[in-house]
């Protein structure tokens, strides 16, 4: 099973890249022709399709940028996919599951990432010729499976650790001419404060919502008013229709109000983290329901941004006076949940570390840190979040590492991560050997030569 688990990580993370996502959702080859599909491997009731294999092979081709690929790459991908299906099969046997909230959170994270990469929701929808909702629906099963696979991996190898001695031994075995060369990398932290609308903006929005509610109760068409006034750009195109959702897939305030209604009924004004909603229940089917809504968001003005700026200025002063660390301040006060849990540090989505190549930085952050010294913190800077909210943030340049060849002094954490990955892979390898005989596995004769179940 040479390289099996190294590539398995690639397979599990393949859908984090925009190019790979395009192929997965469109089901196309680079030439634009549909992939001829069929079942290549069966693992109990799990299957590996030819399109699964070809989509990942295509991604590897794109990343290689014209360089020759290993001749056995398709076999290695198939081995990894088989491992993933074995993880799913055993997860089903062991009742290992993930929640709808976890799936929806991951879907939202990926959509926000794709939107950030491509520029806007509209551009993303035009790129795929599909709405955000449709993209999420098509990804939902894949994301759930990937989260279950990850949970199984965590149960198998999550407690594995490495000692400093093991890290040094791992590094010493890397040939000198194989040491990686790192470009300039930085560690950047942020603390974010959203600009909260003042009372006048809230009251103005409520007045508009009350007017719309009165018009609907007087007989005007909800869908037409949603198309005209709703500030949810995705559902507004469809008369506010959100489609079917299961319980716990929408925010609690919205779900509670929608499920109190009879079909055709109209809710009072409902407040959630997204703004104010008017909700109409369309239909219920078992544990699912279909609804439409009109969303309005109170706008924040200059005074609201100024209030957040003043708050961050005080927090910045405390950090600079050493009365609180940046990491603790981010955890306690930042309103960007993703980075707050990491002490404010932005995460490298490719490997999960806090080290960011300069070409991965948001341009606004790049030009901010370009003139900063390591350890310094910027003054509060206004910006707009991925979901379009006005906000202010302070930015901390924790480290700036110039281009260099890997060494233990500068890259200990990266080398330790690689050593840990190797040790976890060994644990997964041993698990595979113990469990491959506990399930039914059948491989298409075309790929019999790949020796999917071999250990060497």
UniProtKB/TrEMBL annotation:
Keywords for the protein's UniProt record, in alphabetical order: Isomerase, Rotamase, Signal
One Pfam family per UniProt: SurA_N_3
InterPro entries to which the protein is assigned, alphabetical: OMP_Chaperone_SurA, PPIase_dom_sf, PPIase_PpiC, PPIase_PpiC_CS, Trigger_fact/SurA_dom_sf
Name of protein: Peptidylprolyl isomerase
Source species, domain of life: Bacteria
Domain PpiC: 183-283, 286-396
Residues in coiled coil: none
GO molecular function, one term: peptidyl-prolyl cis-trans isomerase activity
């Amino acid at each position: 099973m040479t390289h099996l688990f190294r590539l398995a990580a690639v397979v599990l993370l393949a859908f984090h890249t925009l190019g790979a996502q395009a192929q997965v959702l469109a089901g196309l080859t680079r030439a634009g022709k549909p992939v001829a599909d069929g079942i290549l491997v069966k693992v109990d009731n799990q299957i590996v399709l030819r399109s699964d294999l070809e989509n990942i092979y295509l991604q590897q081709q794109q990343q290689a940028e014209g360089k020759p690929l290993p001749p056995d790459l398709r076999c290695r991908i198939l081995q990894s996919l088989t491992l993933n299906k074995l993880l799913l099969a055993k997860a089903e046997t062991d009742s290992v599951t993930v929640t709808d909230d976890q799936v929806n959170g991951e879907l939202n994270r990926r959509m926000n990432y794709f939107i950030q990469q491509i520029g806007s929701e509209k551009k993303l929808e035009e790129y795929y010729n599909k709405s955000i909702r449709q993209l999420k629906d098509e990804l939902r099963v894949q994301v759930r499976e990937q989260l279950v696979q990850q949970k199984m991996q965590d149960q198998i190898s999550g407690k594995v650790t490495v000692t400093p001695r093991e890290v040094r031994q791992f590094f010493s075995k890397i040939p000198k001419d194989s040491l990686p060369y790192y470009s300039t990398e930085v560690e950047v932290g942020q603390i974010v404060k959203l600009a909260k609308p003042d009372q006048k903006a809230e009251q103005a929005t409520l007045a508009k919502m009350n007017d719309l509610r009165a018009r609907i109760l007087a007989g005007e068409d909800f869908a037409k008013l949603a198309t005209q006034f709703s500030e949810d750009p995705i559902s507004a195109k469809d008369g506010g229709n959100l489609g079917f959702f299961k319980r716990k897939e929408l925010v609690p305030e919205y779900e509670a109000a929608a499920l109190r209604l009879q079909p055709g009924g109209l809710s009072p004004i409902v407040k959630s983290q997204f703004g104010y909603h008017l909700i109409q229940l369309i239909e219920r089917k078992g544990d699912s329901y279909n609804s439409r809504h009109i969303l309005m968001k109170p706008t924040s003005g200059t005074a609201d941004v100024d209030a957040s700026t003043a708050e961050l200025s005080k927090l910045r002063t405390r950090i600079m006076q050493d009365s609180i660390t940046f990491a603790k301040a981010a955890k306690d006060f930042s309103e960007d949940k993703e980075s707050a849990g990491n002490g404010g540090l932005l995460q490298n989505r490719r490997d999960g570390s806090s080290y960011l190549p300069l070409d991965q930085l948001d341009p606004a952050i790049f030009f901010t840190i370009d003139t900063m010294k390591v350890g310094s913190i910027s003054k509060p800077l206004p910006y707009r979040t991925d979901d379009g909210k006005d906000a202010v943030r302070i930015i901390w340049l924790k480290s700036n590492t110039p281009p260099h060849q890997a060494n233990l002094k500068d890259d200990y954490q990266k080398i330790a991560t690689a050593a840990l990955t190797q040790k976890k892979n060994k644990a997964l390898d041993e698990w595979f050997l113990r469990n491959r005989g506990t399930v039914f596995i059948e491989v298409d004769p075309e790929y019999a030569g790949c020796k999917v179940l071999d250990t060497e």
